[in-house]
Amino acid sequence: MNRRKHWYDYLWIWSILFFALGFFNILFAWLGLLDLFLPLLFSLFGGNKFFCNNLCGRGQLFSVLGGRLHCSRQKPTPRWMSSKGFRYGFLIFFFAMFGNMLFQTYLVGAGAGSLRQAVKLFWTFHVPWGWAYTVETVPHWVTQFSFGFYGVMLTSLLLGLIVMLLYRPRSWCAFCPIGTMTQGICKLKQRGKSSDV
User: Fold this and answer.
1) Residue 64 and residue 5: Cα distance in Å, rounded?
2) Which helix (H) or strand (E) holds 12?
């Protein structure tokens, strides 16, 4: 029996729209902060992973591509991908790369670095992206953050697509840094509730 569709079942369209907008104007990358902070707020105030399970446009996109469009091999996700060591190791790595991106943004804002009109893929490859820099009236640090954050978002999308193709559609969710953080927050909140009883 198919469950009734809700408005949030179509948030995979948001994922496509985000990357399309950033392709043409890099400043739209700031919208990606919604995908960073909303899951954390939901877990902080709701004490659950409702966002990850129902509102994550990226997870939905993988489900559509891998499930409905049969782009996935549907193989079981390897256990090591969901192991605590790998998940927290990847989270630390993610924080390190995100911190480096913020530092580069700071350097540009402080005048110690110049704006790089490139997107960094897989934290290694600088891909020229100058055509998306269409608004020159904003401070350079704002634009630098946009390039850096779009690179982070695009890299995680590509990683998710690779594991989707190789394994189950939502294999990325097994080690998604945001998912790991929301899970940690939920555990802490549950522990706090049990200690209050």
Assistant:
1) 14
2) helix 12-24
Please give the structure tokens belonging to residue 47. 């004490």
If you ran DSSP here, which 8-state letter would residue 115 be given? -
> CA-based diameter of the chain, in Å?
60
pTM above 0.85, yes or no: yes
CA-CA distance, 32 to 178, in Å (whole number)? 13
CA 119 to chain centre: 15
Residue 83 CB contacts under 8 Å (≥ 6 apart), including other chains: none
Per-residue pLDDT reduced to its tens digit, 113-168: 899 999 999 888 899 998 998 788 899 999 999 999 999 999 999 999 999 999 99
* Token couple for 108: 């540009």
Which burial class, exposed, middle or buried, applies to 136 when counting CB atoms under 10 A from its CB (0-12, 13-18, 19+)?
A: exposed
Whole-angstrom Cα distance, residue 104 to residue 37?
Answer: 21
The residue length of the chain stands at 197
Unique residue bearing structure tokens 């509730």 = 193
116: helix, strand or coil: coil
